[in-house]
C-alpha cells in the first residue's frame, strides 16, 4: 500500500514528483505530500489530506531547485488520513517518505520519547525520521545515518530519505516493501512501481532487499545495509510502453484495461507455444525437475479466483491433484501437502504480503515454490524457485481485469503443459486457447453496450445481487461479485449454485437480482434448475452465456457466442467486468480508486 517516489536529477523536481505520484495514485489515495529544495536551499514540505488533486492545488506555483526530491501517496495504517500524518515526515534536517509497517514502532517510540523526542504525528514512519536524525548527528553523513538508524528496526519498509545538509543526494532502501530504481541520462528515480517513472525511462532495476541506493544527478551507487559493502547496479530495459500507463481515450483505466484483455492473452502466450502451436513450453519450470505430485495454489482476491479456475483446468487434463488456498488463512495452518508438491503463489503485483508469507512458509517446509505474477522483479520473483510471468502490462485500475485474464491464460497453459500432449482433448483445448484472443477481441468489439447498461441499471435497482455458478462458472460468479462490490459498494455475494438450497436461497425474494454466468456447458442442466428455483421464489435472474443446446431452456439474457474450450471464461469475465464497470460509473464512484482499497496489499 502507499506509493513513494524519489528523484535525483536536473529537472525541476516538483513537477516530476507530482506527475510520478499521479501514476502511483492507484496504490493509496487518502493523503499525499512532497519535499523539495526551495529557492533558499531549504527543504520545503507540502502535504495535503484527501486525493492527490488537493496536493496539486496546494503546490500551485511551487518550484524546486534541481537535485533531490521525494513524494508519497498514502493508504493509512497508523493514524488517520490527516495532513499531520501525511508524509514526508521530518526530524531536523532529515526528511523521508515510507511505505510499509514498522512492527516494533511502539517500543522505538517509547525509547525516543524517553530521550526527549517530540512527535508530531501518529505514524510509525516518524520513528524512522527521528532515529535517522539522531544517527546523523553522530555520523555526519546521510548514508551512514540511514544504516545506523535502521538497525534494530523490525517490519517492512521502502524509504526515500533526503537531508537538508546534502542537497542533490537521496538515499533509498527497502526491506519487505517494493522499490524499483530507474536510470536515465543524468537522473535517477526510486519508486514503488515502474509506471511512476515510465515516462522518463524504461531502464529499471528492482532494488534488492537491505541494499542502500545513493542517488544523485552525478550517479548512483549501491551498498549493503548491514556492512556498507558495495553492490553492483544492473539495469534492464522493460518492454512496457509508457502509453500503456495512460488512459488514452477511455474514461477510466478499468475500462481501458478490460479492452486490453486480448492483448494480455497474446502477450502471455508469447514464446510459450512450440511446434506450430501444438505444444506448450514453459522453460521456467524445467529447473524444478519432475512434475509435481500435487499443486497448492495460494493467492488473495481475484488471483485466488484464477487459482480456482486453474484447479479445474489442471485436474481436467492431468492426474495431479490441486488445492487452492486463501493465502492469509493458509499461512497460519500446518501445510500438510504431499512430498513433491509445488506451492504456486498467484499475485498480479507480486507484492501481496499474505501470498509472500504463504510462499515463505512453504519454502521453509521444504516445498518447491513458483510465483505467477505480472510484475517482473517483484518480491515474488525473488522469493520463489521459479517465476511464470503473466504479461498484461501495467494494471492501474484497482479492480483487476486484464491481469485476471492473463492469470487464467497462464493456468490454462499450465493445464495443457501437465496434460498428455497426444490426447485429442488437450490438442483441441490448445487450439481453442490459441484462438481465444481473437475471439475475445471480436466479442469486445461488438459488445452490446446498451444491454450492459440495462443490466447495470438492474443491478443498481436491486437490494442485493447474488452471483451463482457451478464448475467453471463458480469462480466466475465470485469474481463477478467481488468486482461489483469493490467498485459499486453495493451488497453482492457469490455462491456455488448447488449451495443455494443450503442457506442463501432464503435471501431470494422480489427485488433480489441473481446473475448467473453460464460458460461451463458441462453443468448447464444443473445450473438451469438452480435458476428455476430462484425464479419460482420471485428473484430475477440475468444469465450470461451461449444459447443452450436444450431448446426448452430460455435464451440467455446476455448471449455469448458458442464457447470453444474454456474461452467462455474470457467472454463471460469480460461481461461481468463491463457490468461492474458500467454500474460503478453510473453511481459516480471513483472507479479506478475505490474507497478503502489499494492496488497492492503489502501489509497483512
Ligand atoms: O496483487 P495481487 O494479485 O496479489 O492482489 C490480490 C488482491 O488484492 C487483488 O486481486 C484484489 O482482490 C483486487 N482488487 C480485485 O479486483
Describe the structure.
The chain is of the alpha/beta class. It folds into three domains: 3-241, Glutamine Phosphoribosylpyrophosphate, subunit 1, domain 1, CATH 3.60.20; 254-445, Glucose-6-phosphate isomerase like protein, domain 1 (Rossmann fold); 449-587, Glucose-6-phosphate isomerase like protein, domain 1 (Rossmann fold, 3-Layer(aba) Sandwich), CATH 3.40.50.10490. It has 17 helices and 27 strands. The strands form five sheets. The protein has an eight-stranded antiparallel β-sheet with strand order 3-2-4-1-10-9-11-15. Strands 5-6-7-8-12-13-14 form a seven-stranded antiparallel β-sheet. Helix 16 links the parallel strand 25 and strand 26 (540-545). Helix 7 packs parallel to helix 12 (402-418). The longest helix has 22 residues, at 424-445. The radius of gyration is 25 Å and the shape is globular. It starts with a strand and ends in a 17-residue tail after the last helix. The mean pLDDT is 94. It binds 5-amino-5-deoxy-1-O-phosphono-D-mannitol (M6R). 5-amino-5-deoxy-1-O-phosphono-D-mannitol (M6R) binds next to helix 8 and helix 15.
Amino acid at each position: 500500500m502507499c506509493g513513494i517516489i524519489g528523484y535525483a536529477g536536473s529537472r525541476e523536481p516538483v513537477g516530476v514528483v507530482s506527475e510520478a505520484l499521479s501514476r502511483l495514485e492507484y496504490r493509496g489515495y487518502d493523503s499525499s505530500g512532497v519535499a523539495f529544495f526551495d529557492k533558499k536551499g531549504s527543504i520545503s514540505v507540502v502535504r495535503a489530506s484527501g486525493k492527490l488533486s488537493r496536493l496539486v492545488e496546494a503546490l500551485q506555483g511551487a518550484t524546486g531547485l534541481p537535485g533531490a526530491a521525494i513524494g508519497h501517496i498514502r493508504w493509512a495504517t497508523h493514524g488517520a488520513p490527516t495532513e499531520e500524518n501525511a508524509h514526508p515526515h521530518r526530524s531536523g534536517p532529515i526528511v523521508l517518505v515510507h511505505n510499509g509497517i514498522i512492527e516494533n514502532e511502539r517500543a522505538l517510540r517509547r525509547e525516543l520519547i524517553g530521550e526527549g523526542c517530540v512527535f508530531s504525528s501518529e505514524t510509525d514512519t516518524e520513528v524512522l525520521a527521528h532515529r535517522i536524525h539522531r544517527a546523523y548527528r553522530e555520523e555526519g553523513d546521510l548514508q551512514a545515518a540511514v544504516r545506523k538508524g535502521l538497525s534494530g528496526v523490525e517490519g517492512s519498509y521502502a524509504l526515500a530519505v533526503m537531508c537538508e545538509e546534502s542537497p542533490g543526494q537521496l538515499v533509498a532502501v527497502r526491506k519487505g516493501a517494493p522499490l524499483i530504481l530507474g536510470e536515465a541520462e543524468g537522473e535517477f528515480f526510486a519508486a514503488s512501481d515502474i509506471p511512476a517513472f515510465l515516462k522518463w525511462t524504461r531502464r529499471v532495476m528492482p532494488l534488492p532487499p537491505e541494499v542502500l541506493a545513493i542517488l544523485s544527478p552525478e550517479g548512483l551507487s549501491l551498498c549493503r545495509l548491514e556492512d556498507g559493502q558495495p553492490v553492483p547496479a544492473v539495469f534492464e530495459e522493460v518492454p512496457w510502453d509508457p502509453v500503456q500507463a495512460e488512459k488514452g481515450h477511455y474514461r477510466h483505466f478499468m475500462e481501458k484495461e478490460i479492452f486490453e484483455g486480448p492483448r494480455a492473452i497474446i502477450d502471455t502466450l508469447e514464446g510459450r507455444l512450440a511446434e506450430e502451436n501444438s505444444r506448450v513450453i514453459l522453460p521456467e519450470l524445467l529447473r524444478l525437475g519432475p512434475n509435481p505430485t500435487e499443486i497448492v495454489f495460494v493467492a488473495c482476491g481475484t488471483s485466488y479466483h484464477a487459482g480456482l479456475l486453474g484447479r479445474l483446468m489442471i485436474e481436467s487434463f492431468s492426474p495431479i491433484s490441486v488445492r487452492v488456498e486463501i493465502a492469509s488463512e493458509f499461512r497460519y495452518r500446518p501445510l500438510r501437502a504431499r512430498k513433491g508438491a509445488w506451492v504456486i503463489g498467484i499475485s498480479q503485483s507480486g507484492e501481496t504480503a499474505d501470498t509472500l508469507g504463504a510462499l515463505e512458509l512453504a519454502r521453509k517446509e521444504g516445498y518447491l515454490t513458483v510465483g505467477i505474477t505480472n510484475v517482473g522483479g517483484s518480491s515474488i520473483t525473488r522469493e520463489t524457485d521459479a517465476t511464470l510471468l503473466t504479461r498484461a502490462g501495467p494494471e492501474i485500475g484497482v479492480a483487476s481485469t486484464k491481469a485476471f485474464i492473463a492469470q487464467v491464460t497462464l493456468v490454462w497453459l499450465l493445464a495443457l503443459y501437465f496434460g498428455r500432449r497426444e490426447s485429442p482433448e488437450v490438442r483441441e483445448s490448445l487450439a481453442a486457447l490459441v484462438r481465444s484472443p481473437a475471439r475475445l477481441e471480436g466479442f469486445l468489439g461488438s459488445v452490446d453496450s446498451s444491454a450492459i447498461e440495462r443490466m447495470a441499471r438492474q443491478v443498481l435497482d436491486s437490494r442485493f445481487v447474488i452471483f451463482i455458478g457451478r464448475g467453471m462458472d463458480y469462480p466466475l460468479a465470485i469474481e463477478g461479485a467481488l468486482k461489483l462490490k469493490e467498485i459499486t459498494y453495493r451488497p453482492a455475494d457469490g455462491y456455488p449454485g448447488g449451495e443455494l438450497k443450503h442457506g442463501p436461497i432464503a435471501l431470494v425474494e422480489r427485488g433480489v437480482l441473481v446473475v448467473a454466468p453460464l460458460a461451463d456447458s458441462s453443468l448447464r442442466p444443473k445450473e438451469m434448475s438452480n435458476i428455476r428455483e430462484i425464479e419460482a421464489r420471485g428473484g430475477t435472474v440475468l444469465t450470461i452465456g451461449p444459447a443452450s443446446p436444450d431448446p426448452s431452456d430460455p435464451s440467455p439474457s446476455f448471449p455469448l457466442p458458442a464457447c470453444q474450450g474454456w474461452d467462455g471464461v474470457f467472454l463471460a469475465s469480460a461481461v461481468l467486468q463491463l457490468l461492474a464497470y458500467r454500474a460503478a460509473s453510473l453511481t459516480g464512484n471513483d472507479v479506478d480508486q475505490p474507497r478503502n482499497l489499494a492496488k497492492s496489499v503489502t501489509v497483512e
